[in-house]
Amino acid sequence: MRILILSQWCQPEPFFKGIPFAKALQARGHEVEILTGFPNYPNGKIYPGYKVRLFHREVIDSIPVNRVALYPSHNHSGFHRILNYMSFAVSAALIGPLLVKKPDVIYAYNLITLDWAAWLLKKIHGCPVVLDIQDLWPDSVIDSGMMRKSNLMHLLSFWCNNVYRRASHLTTLSPGFKNELVKRGVPKNNVSVIYNWCDETNINTSSSIPSKLNKLKKENPFIVMFAGTMGVMQGLDTVLDAAENLLKIEPQIKFVLVGGGIECERMEESATRRNLENVVFLERQPPEKINALFQMADVLLVHLKDIPLFQITIPSKIQAYMAAGKPILLGVKGDSADIVRESEAGVMFTPESPESMLDGILELYNMTETERKRMGLKGSQYYRENLSMNAGVKKFEKIFHELKK
């Protein structure tokens, strides 16, 4: 098959379904092309070596990548975020069809705003569209603070539900998302649950840890690590509150927060102001260094704000943490908790509760190293059998073939 991946994000941005997904499909005999924007996520700044222009073609690891203009932004401003999404949507719809070859199937990643480009390409080439739902709109728009509830939101909800219903097929990341889509009028047999996977190549890569952490490593502390985007939805004030309490109880426990995002600067300022000597911040690291960081940790932390939408969300870092074979400290309810509980890969705590997080950390801290290692091994086994790229790509390929018939 000739498969077109339509996504606003792609490498060198930290995106697990860009080039890795394309390469996995290519390895199975398919011709894959990508239509995307200019890299600016997660900080909203264009990456070195790129500048926004009408379009740009390149080849990354043998995969043709077509980039179209967008407005780079990823800050607190709802207006700028919407402009970021809409600018790519318009460019992809108007310029994209002139750049890409005729596909047999279009795989569109997540954003409801990609509907214009996907619909136009579908009409031009007569091919099916598989829409991969990672965020439910308009719920995620409201929860992110980009827009407030209003009459406009009712109109957006009507449009989103129509987009979901007219896609050839929907894939989504959790049973909870599927149930919600069915409630919105999507036929049950038009929705498939395909769990996200992680960047497996870099999870298995060995490299040195950043020099900033060398001193910390020599102190041999018990490390609780968060790695990923530091945004509003991650609710990382809870981490700082727990760190403040633990500094008085067990100073041997250290927090390492790795990544970038719109909350990063504020979090660092808050930790400095509160004299949290047990919290270390590290800028976003290249993918090839992530496994070295994970192996340095004793526990890997996942936390999201306690809102209903996140009960049916499975953060992609859960898969990365499982694949790394480390115990997970999870502050997310619902489907995510079900996976960690079923796999016996970690300890759960109540999201946005510093006291509950503290209890979970101490529970893991007081375990033997053998007990924590057993948790990590169970997680990695569960990942291989249920969440891996190999398992996911096979499911996507089956859907693509069925739609092409």
UniProtKB/TrEMBL annotation:
UniProt protein name: Glycosyltransferase involved in cell wall bisynthesis
Record-level GO BP terms: lipopolysaccharide biosynthetic process
Annotated ranges, domain Glycosyltransferase subfamily 4-like N-terminal: 22-197
Short name of any one Pfam family annotated for the protein: Glycos_transf_1
CDD domains in the record: GT4_WbuB-like (cd03794)
Keyword list, A-Z: Transferase
Domain Glycosyl transferase family: start-end pairs: 215-376
Signal peptide (from-to): none
Species in which this protein is naturally found: Desulfocicer vacuolatum DSM 3385
Any GO MF annotation of the entry: glycosyltransferase activity
